[in-house]
Design goal:
binds fe (ii) ion, 8-stranded mixed beta sheet, 7 helices, 16 strands, 2,3-Dihydroxybiphenyl 1,2-Dioxygenase, domain 1, alpha+beta
Length: 355
């Protein structure tokens, strides 16, 4: 078999207040709470799963609640931001207007060349982006030869060529009263981290996950730093929801620190248990230290680290979130795995009710 992931399965983050996180992702960003459970390794704290379409892989953002933990910070070996996908510039501007009217501070829309983007933070400081589907990665090199050239962005996309006041003033002209169907976010568009060694990281993402380098350019906000993109790319098409990107940083740059407001790990997809087992063997064969297969109830998982220290998971698509409650009632009840059911009474007294 060929070891090429279909893209992101989920990203997992740390929040300080599950109720506040629920209000933000459900009411402001329009995600469904598809599972209300506890952190299996710390069962008196919540683990909330947000997603679309019943929690299909690639649409999932999950949150550990660490009420007493310190704030983390982004840096080398961590994730800087997670981008969520929207259709086009109109829907992007509608999101800006909607977020602003919900007291979320938004920057952009920025023309990133390959897509257009706005940026904001969740209540704990996790940086989020909403990005359009196009124009695509073939605007500056042919679709069958992506990643070969070192691309210098047009000056209009760089800080010295941008009119920040004009960008800040752009928004949808009408008030947005509610998230409309065309605004619906379709899932994880890309994930961006920081690396002190883009060559080593790229080699790792290619051999461990089968992702291909599709763009070599610079960070369009800090143009003296590199920005590389990888994805599931077969020389003709790029699979949506598979784009991992890294900003290159100096070897003296600060390291990421785990904690509230940061991404705990990112997960890529495996088709099923059999493929996950094969993937584990493949990683071991590459000399990559990988955990045993762990049962996460809604999927099975293995974990390993990227060269910069970023925690990576591979998770199976099945069985999914309808395994322990009906698909039209996902997220309503506190669900526990069988091995924690005997502790339910104690757990329920220790975690606050969510509404
Ligand atoms: Fe995970
Ligand atoms: Fe981004």
């Amino acid at each position: 078999m060929s070891f090429v992931t279909k893209g992101f399965h989920h990203t997992t983050h740390v929040c300080s207040d599950a109720g506040r996180t629920l209000a933000f992702y459900r009411d402001v960003l329009g995600f469904d709470l598809v599972k209300k459970t506890v952190n299996f390794d710390m069962p008196t704290t919540y683990h909330l799963y947000f997603g679309k379409n019943g929690g299909s892989p690639g649409t999932l953002l999950t949150y550990f609640e660490w009420p007493y933990a310190a704030r983390g910070r982004w840096g080398a070996g961590g994730v800087h931001h997670v981008a969520l996908g929207t259709t086009d510039r109109d829907t992007l501007l509608k999101w800006k207007r909607w977020l602003t009217s919900n007291d979320v501070k938004v920057s952009g829309p920025y023309n990133r060349g390959y897509f257009h983007s706005i940026y904001f933070q969740d209540p704990d400081g996790q940086v989020l982006e909403i990005a359009t589907e196009g124009p695509g990665f073939d605007i500056d090199e042919p679709m069958d030869r992506l990643g070969e050239l070192m691309i210098t962005p047009d000056i209009s996309r760089l800080p010295q060529g941008r009119d920040e006041a004009e960008i800040a003033a752009q928004t949808w002209p009408e008030p947005i009263e509610a998230i409309t169907p065309e605004m619906d976010l379709w899932g994880i568009h890309h994930v961006t981290g920081h690396s002190k060694d883009l060559v080593a990281a790229g080699e790792f993402y290619e051999r461990a996950l089968g992702l291909k380098l599709i763009k070599k350019t610079v960070n369009q906000d800090v143009p003296d730093l590199l920005h590389y993109f990888w994805a599931n790319y077969d020389g003709e098409t790029i699979l949506p929801g598979s784009d991992m990107t890294l900003f290159g940083v100096n070897h003296l740059a600060r390291d990421a620190r785990e904690g509230v407001g940061q991404t705990h790990h990112i997960a890529f997809r495996a088709d099923d248990d059999e493929q996950l087992g094969a993937w584990r063997e493949h990683l071991l064969g590459q000399g990559i230290a990988v955990t045993e297969i762990r049962d996460r109830n809604y999927f099975k998982s293995i974990y390993f680290n990227a060269p910069d220290g970023l925690r990576i998971e591979i998770a199976t698509d099945p069985p999914g979130f309808a395994i322990d409650e009906s698909s039209d009632a996902l997220g309503r009840e506190l669900k526990l795995p069988d091995w924690l059911e005997s502790q339910r009474a104690e757990i329920e007294t220790k975690i606050p009710e969510l509404s």
